[in-house]
Amino acid sequence: MGELSSLPNIAAKLESQLADVGITTIEQLKDIGSREAWLRILARDPSACIMRLTALEGAIQSVRWHYLDDDTKTSLKEFYQQHKR
Predict the structure, then answer these.
(1) Can you give the pLDDT at residue 84?
(2) Please, where are the H alpha helices in 1-85?
(3) Residue 53 sits in a domain of what CATH number?
(4) pLDDT, block means (10 residues), the chain with 85 residues
(5) Domain range spanning residue 22?
(6) Residue 49 backbone zone (phi > 0: left; psi -120 to 50: alpha; other: beta)
(7) C-beta pairs of 12-19 under 8 Å, 24+ apart in sequence
(8) Which residues are within 8 A (CB) of 60 and not within 5 positions of it... i.e. 6 or more apart?
C-alpha cells in the first residue's frame, strides 16, 4: 500500500481506484480535491457512492468521514445528487 493509505478513510480499494485515475500522492489528492477525485472514479466505476465522496473529503481533512462538519456533509450530498443521476 502507498502513502494514500496513511490517510483516514483510505483503504486498499480506494487507494487503488485513486491510482487508476492518476492520483498517487497526498499532495495530488489535496490539489485535486475530493469532488474532482470522486468524479474521476465515477467515470470508471458507476457504483461510486456518497460514502466514497465523504471518505475522500475526510481523508483530505485528516478526519474520519463521520466527523466532517454538517455544512461539509450537506455540500457533499448536494454535489453527489447533482452528479449521480
Answers:
(1) 82
(2) 12-20, 26-32, 34-44, 50-61, 70-83
(3) 1.10.150.20
(4) 92 96 98 98 96 98 96 98 87
(5) 3-83
(6) beta
(7) 14/52, 14/55, 14/56, 17/41, 17/44, 17/45
(8) 7, 29, 30, 33, 34
Total count of domains within the chain:
1
Which burial class, exposed, middle or buried, applies to 65 when counting CB atoms under 10 A from its CB (0-12, 13-18, 19+)? buried
Angstrom distance (rounded) from CA 2 to CA 59? 14
Q: For the whole model, what pTM was predicted?
A: 0.94
For residue 84, the tally of other CB atoms under 10 A from its CB is 13
DSSP-assigned letter for residue 8 = T
> What SS3 state is found at 62?
coil
Task: List the grid coordinates of 65.
Answer: 468521514
